[in-house]
Design goal:
alpha+beta, Rossmann fold, Elongation Factor Tu (Ef-tu), domain 3, 3 domains, six-stranded mixed beta sheet, globular, disordered N terminus, GTP-eEF1A_C, transferase, GTPase activity, SO4_adenylTrfase_lsu, nucleotidyltransferase
């Protein structure tokens, strides 16, 4: 009889830190040591490493996929990689370390449930280390692993590790970062990544992979209220099948919580109430659905519902708001203009919005709050928007799905910013 292997669920995590701390090498080592690299991929990076005159395979090439990055030897864009072990599936985001790519890091962090902050053991805690840690906390990543890398270059010194750990803990206490775990490692040599190695015998904690395997899955930190933004209303037009004549299914993705047949629900903005008649995937009844599942809901009553509406449980109705305070990361080259009207896209609902106030801007280097009249690219600020249409929003720290939005330039249809509702 085959033993049942427990599935720990999908884990999305982010690697970040200062330039050349070894983020790409760390991910390459994880993929290599978990035996998830295809033979032709390994052969290609071996050839590239040989052309560069390196004596060993440069595992960082697995994530530095853009040609410009390979030529410069730095990470510019966010590189995503996927792998799985016997108990868990992973999505890794390798975020850029440069200050001018702050917007890329915010994009990568928005869906991550854990962040690995890399520190070069030779350099200790740097300005970029503090900045990335603060950004990770700001976008609601609940768990941090501080990986003190390149221990091989400081003779695997426990004293160096303890000094950097104490320095980071002092910084974390000032900015309110709480759930932190520390690990010494060498991504280049593979010490404490998947295998323990022989050089860090003084460290008796888990390896990096052990920490990742045991990390809580997304949506498990606290109970989330059911939120179902309607993407599409399905009304089949099949005259040959009279059973489909009255079929009216509301299709979308469960952003949070769960729903089952018989639950009392409310459709927003109308406020009309009904009960769930069926929960389906691909036309098959499943009875109950959970967070991140794409489903079709059928209700017991005929309610006028369209894209942009939201279905919630009747005892968990969010407030309709026409003004929001949010932390915004500005992503466009043109600065935010107080005189312009922008489009805010929140789940499947759009609303025109005017900037009412910039409360303050965050200096990402000093982490101080400073006054601001406008926002330039990569700026992060707390702002207030006035909305033309109401949104059904939750605070970002309670629900990342319904607490986030993007800002769109109506004239170009480009995404110019991303926000988190306070």
């Amino acid at each position: 009889m085959t033993a049942q292997v427990e599935d720990h669920g999908l884990l999305r995590f982010l690697t970040c830190g200062s330039v050349d701390d070894g983020k790409s090498t760390l991910i390459g080592r994880l993929l290599f040591d978990t035996k998830t690299i295809l033979a032709d991929t390994l052969s290609a990076i071996a050839k590239t490493s040989e052309k560069r005159g390196l004596g060993a395979v440069d595992l960082s090439l697995l994530t530095d996929g853009l040609q410009a990055e390979r030529e410069q030897g730095i990470t510019i864009d966010v590189a995503y990689r996927y792998f799985s072990t016997g108990t868990r599936k992973y999505i890794i985001a390798d975020a850029p370390g440069h200050e001018q790519y702050t917007r890329n890091m915010v994009t990568a962090a928005s869906t991550a449930n854990l962040a690995i902050i890399l520190i070069d053991a030779r350099k200790g805690v740097l300005t970029q280390t503090r900045r990335h840690s603060k950004l990770a906390a700001l976008v609601g990543i609940p768990h941090l692993i501080v990986a003190i890398n390149k221990m091989d270059l400081v003779d695997y010194s426990q004293e160096t590790y303890e000094r950097i750990k104490a320095e980071y803990l002092e910084f974390a206490a000032k900015v309110g970062i709480e759930d932190i775990r520390f690990i010494p490692l060498s991504a280049l040599n593979g010490d404490m990544i998947v295998d323990r190695g022989d050089s860090l015998n003084w460290y008796d904690g888990p390896t990096l992979l052990d920490m990742l395997e045991a990390a809580p899955a997304a949506h498990t930190e606290h109970t989330e209220k059911f939120r179902f933004p309607v993407q599409y209303v399905c009304r089949p037009q099949d005259s040959a099948n009279p059973e489909l004549h009255d079929y009216r299914g509301f299709m979308g993705r469960v952003e949070a919580g769960s729903i089952k047949v018989g639950d009392a629900v409310t459709v927003l903005p109308s406020g009309r109430e009904s009960t769930v008649k069926a929960v389906q995937i691909g036309g098959v009844d499943i009875g109950e659905a959970f967070t991140e599942q794409s489903i079709t809901l059928l209700l017991a009553d005929e309610i006028d519902t369209s894209r942009g509406d939201m279905i919630v449980k009747s005892n968990e109705v969010p407030a309709a708001v026409k003004q929001i305070e949010a932390t915004v990361c500005w992503m466009a080259e043109a600065p935010m203009d107080r005189a312009r009207t922008y489009l805010i896209r929140h789940t499947t609902r759009d609303s025109k919005a005017k900037l009412a106030a910039i409360d303050h801007r965050l200096d990402v280097n000093t982490l101080e709050k400073v006054p601001a009249e406008k926002l330039a690219m990569n700026d992060i600020a707390q702002v207030t928007f006035k909305l033309a249409q109401p949104l059904f929003a939750d605070p970002y720290l309670e629900n990342r799905g319904t607490g986030a939005f993007i800002i769109i330039d109506e004239s170009s249809n480009n995404t110019v910013g991303a926000g988190m509702i306070l």
